[in-house]
Write a structure and sequence with these properties.
With 236 residues, the protein is an alpha+beta fold. The chain has one domain: outer membrane lipoprotein receptor (LolB), chain A (Clam), CATH 2.50.20. It is 31% helix and 38% strand. The chain is built from 6 helices and 11 strands. It has helices spanning 2-37, 102-107, 114-120, 126-134, 153-160, 229-235, and strands spanning 40-49, 61-66, 71-77, 80-87, 90-94, 100-101, 141-143, 146-150, 172-185, 188-202, 205-218. The protein has an 11-stranded antiparallel sheet, with helices on both faces. Strand 7 and strand 8 (146-150) form a beta hairpin. Helix 1 (2-37) runs antiparallel to helix 4 (126-134). The longest helix is centred in the N-terminal third of the chain and has 36 residues, at 2-37.
Length: 236
């Protein structure tokens, strides 16, 4: 009888510990789903690259999205402002004077929007991105007013290459490591931040990457997405 009680006690303790360890990650995933369920929201994403060499990803991105509707992005890269509107599996970008569909831009070898079109074809809203990143952590724990943890090696590799191409042409990544923090407000994701480091090798070129990306959510429920006429034509 005593042995049965001891076994039961140990099982209950083990279950409690597992529940405690899982709770913060469950809270984050629930918070991302609650954000995704909102009718609309806006966000600002900033990228800080050590050494100031941000390249194509170095500027801020302002975004607005409506559930079941359109997502509009305004990306600042140096002195250039790039616009994009996405809806379902369709999209339009304005990287020059005229709007192009994502298909047109991706097929244009000379156009400035080719790299952007390829990136946007795999775009996910912040709610979906955050949920995906939470699933790539070793463990999440309460950290002051945030929930934080280390990324798995595969998770860090994915973020280092920005979810880039796979197969034979995939860049090689070594020394990948990273961390993430999530902030919640009233049970809804309000901000998240990733930090990744590693060496990325592509076409014989090695590059050390040390990048911090911060996404801040705002204007939940009051965001309106305006679609320019030129973009609307490319979405139809």
């Amino acid at each position: 009888m005593k042995r049965n009680v001891s076994v039961l006690t140990l099982a209950l303790l083990a279950g409690s510990l597992l529940a405690l360890n899982a709770a913060p990650k469950d809270d984050v995933i629930a918070a991302t789903k609650k954000l995704a369920d909102k009718s609309n929201y806006s966000w600002k994403s900033t990228v800080d690259v050590a050494g100031g060499q941000g390249g194509r990803m170095g500027g801020p991105t302002e975004g607005k999205t409506e559930k079941g509707g359109c997502t509009r992005l305004t990306m600042t890269r140096g002195e250039n402002t790039l616009l994009a509107v996405l809806k379902g599996d369709k999209g339009a970008i304005k990287a020059g004077e005229e709007w192009q569909s994502l298909t047109e831009a991706a097929a244009d070898d000379q156009g400035p929007g080719r790299w952007l079109a390829r990136m946007l074809q795999a775009f996910k809203t912040p709610a979906a991105q955050a949920e995906e990143v939470a699933g790539k952590t070793k463990e999440l724990k309460a950290d002051g007013g945030a929930i934080a943890g280390e990324l798995t090696e595969d998770g860090a590799k994915s973020l280092l290459t920005m979810g880039g191409r796979g197969g034979a042409n995939a860049p090689e990544v070594s020394g990948a490591k990273g961390s993430v923090k999530f902030w919640l407000k009233d049970g809804v994701l309000s901000k998240w931040e990733t930090k990744v480091q590693g060496k990325v090798s592509f076409n014989g070129n090695d590059r050390d990457v040390d990048r911090t990306t911060t996404v801040e959510i705002k204007d939940i429920g009051t965001t309106k997405v305006e679609v320019p006429e030129g973009a609307q034509k490319k979405l139809s």
